[in-house]
Amino acid sequence: MYRRYLLFLVWTIAIVFIVVFGNNRVFPDGFLFSFLRFDQSQFDTSALSLFTLLGIYPAAFFMLFLDEKRFLKPSPMLASFGAFVLGSFILMPYLALAIPRKTFLPFRRRKFIPYLVAVLAILSAVVIWLALARSDWSIFQIYFMTNQFVRTMTVDLVMFYILQLFMLHRIRVRQSNRLGWRDVVPLFGLFSYLFRRHLPTSSEV
After folding, report:
1. Is the dihedral of CA 83, 86, 87, 90 positive or negative?
2. What angle do CA 124, 12, 174 make, to 5 degrees?
3. DSSP string spanning the chain?
4. Which residues does residue 73 pair with via DSSP β-bridges, in sequence order?
5. Is the pTM above the cut of 0.85?
6. Environment class of residue 201 by beta-carbon count within 10 Å: exposed (0-12), middle (13-18) or buried (19+)?
7. Residue-wise pLDDT tens digits, 13-45
8. How far apart are CA 17 and CA 31, in angstroms?
9. Predicted pLDDT of residue 29
């Protein structure tokens, strides 16, 4: 039960931080299309990379919930779809309120998931490499201090990581295990679990 309160506390602090911290200057009209095009001539690579990762994280959670919906009610799929628009801000209250199922169906291995995870992992690695190689982090700091959109994205990414730890901890407890070192790697820990989970030779249960 205390985990529910913890998630709500994190969720509340995140929203208050976004609203109160810094200024709330907005980007000019059409900025969203520049982000979708990864237009580095308009915006720094750091913010563009962050935006891209926030499209990948919900996809990873969607694949996770395809299996975890066996253990949760109501079904997490509606919240998972919503995460592509509202990010972790919809997933966190859902997981705080979700009720564990007393009975559930057997695990269903999905053959497409390892392939999709591999593609997303490569894409994520490329995006992170671009962020590290081409970003001006002083510009990102200015974005963070003066723009609510970038501030929201940054907090959203941190919350996704918290949810990753929350979900993988829940799964490991169910398996009578502890979090492994792979589990705590941001994003790639989730990829690692999903990849191994859905391999035909997987020993995951």
Report:
1. negative
2. 60
3. -HHHHHHHHHHHHHHHHHHHSS--BPPPTTHHHHHHTT-TTTS-HHHHHHHHHHHHHHHHHHHHHHHHTTTEES-THHHHHHHHHHTHHHHHHHHHH-EE-SS-PPP---THHHHHHHHHHHHHHHHHHHHHHH--HHHHHHHHHHBHHHHHHHHHHHHHHHHHHHHHHHHHHHTT----TTTTSTTHHHHHHHHHHTSTT----
4. 99
5. yes
6. exposed
7. 999 998 888 777 777 778 888 898 899 888 999
8. 23
9. 76
Among residues 161, 56, 44, 156, the alpha carbon closest in space to that of 116 is found at: 56
Q: What mean pLDDT do residues 123-142 have?
A: 94
Query: Which among 188, 7, 184 has a CA at the least distance from the CA of 90?
Result: 7
Q: What is the pLDDT of residues 165-175, one digit of tens each?
A: 999 999 999 88
Q: Is the pLDDT of residue 108 over 70?
A: yes
Residue 205 has which token pair? 């249960």
Task: Give the type of residue at 90.
Answer: I
Please give the pLDDT value at position 204: 55
Structure tokens of 19? 């609203």
Structure tokens at 143: 């974005």
pLDDT at position 63: 97
User: Two tokens at 49?
Assistant: 């990379």
